[in-house]
Amino acid sequence: MPDDPADSAERAHGVTRAPSGPADSAGQSWRGREVTDTGFGADDGSADVNLLAALRNPDDETNLMRVLSTARLLVPIVAAPTEVVHEGALTADKSADMAVATLVSPEGMRALPVFSGMPELQAWDPAARPSPVTSARAAQAAISERCDVMVVDLAGPSPVTLRPSMVWALATGRDWQPAYLDGHVRAAVEAAVRDEPDVASAECEAGENGALRVVLFVRDGLDSAALQGIAQRVGERIATDGETRARIDALTFAIRPTPAKRH
C-alpha cells in the first residue's frame, strides 16, 4: 500500500501528528458542530501570489511577516477517532470527531500546520478539511492548542517554520521585528544590566537561528565564575517580563572587554 502523503511529509521533516481527542482547545466536543464562518465564503482556495513569493524567500523574515500579517491561511481539520473497536488482530475506528491537526517533533515541540492554498493542503492530506482564517486567527489557534511554532506548507519543497515570537506577533496583531532590533527588547536588556557594576554597557546582536545575542562589555579581571554569574542574573531579569520573553526565541551571551576610552 502506498504511503499516505501526510505521513511521508511528516516523516521527512521529523514530526508526527499529536494525539487528538474528542475535544477542541476550549474543551468542548466537536461532535455535531460546524466550523464557524470565518468570513472567507467566496474563497476559491488559491494561494496569494504575494504570500507564495515571500515563502520562497524566507530569509527576508521581516517581509515574510509583513505579508503574513494580512494573509489568509488554511488550517487543516482532520478526523480524530473517539471510539476504537478491537476485533481480533484488527483495530478500527468506530466513530470520529473533527479536530485541528497538530504535530509533534521527537523533542516534544508542538506545531500547527497551516497552508497557503488548497493544492498545498491536499499535497499534505487530501482528506483534511480546510478552515480558511486570517493569520491572526491561525496564530491564536496555535497558542490555544499549546503549539510552539507554526509550519507553513509542510508538504511543499521548502516548508517555512514560524518561530514562537512570530506566532505571538501574529496572534496579537503586532508588527514583528527580530529581537535584536526590537525597541521593547533593547530597553529590557538595558534595564537588566543597569544594576551590574562590572558591566559598562550591553548591545543586542543577531544570533544564530533567530536567537538574540546580548553582548556584555565588562571590566577586565573577572574570572569565569563572575562572568557566568553576571550572564545568569541578566538573563533572569530579562525573563521576568512575559512580553519580553514572547519576543525572544532564544537568548545567548557574548562577553567582551570594555572598549578603551579615547583621549
Provide a compact summary of the structure.
This protein has 263 residues and is an alpha+beta fold. The chain has helices at 5-12, 49-55, 61-68, 118-124, 135-144, 164-172, 183-193, 224-239, 242-246; strands spanning 16-17, 72-87, 90-100, 103-104, 110-114, 129-134, 149-152, 160-162, 199-206, 212-218, 251-257.
Order of helices and strands: HEHHEEEEHEHEEHHEEHHE
Strand order of the largest sheet: 1-4-5-7-8
Query: How would you characterize the largest beta sheet?
Result: 5 strands, mixed
Structure classification: alpha+beta
Distance, first to last CA: 78 Å
* General shape: elongated
Low-confidence stretches: 20-37, 91-96
Task: Please report which band the strand proportion falls in: under 5%, 5-15%, 15-25%, 25-35%, 35-45% or over 45%.
Answer: 25-35%
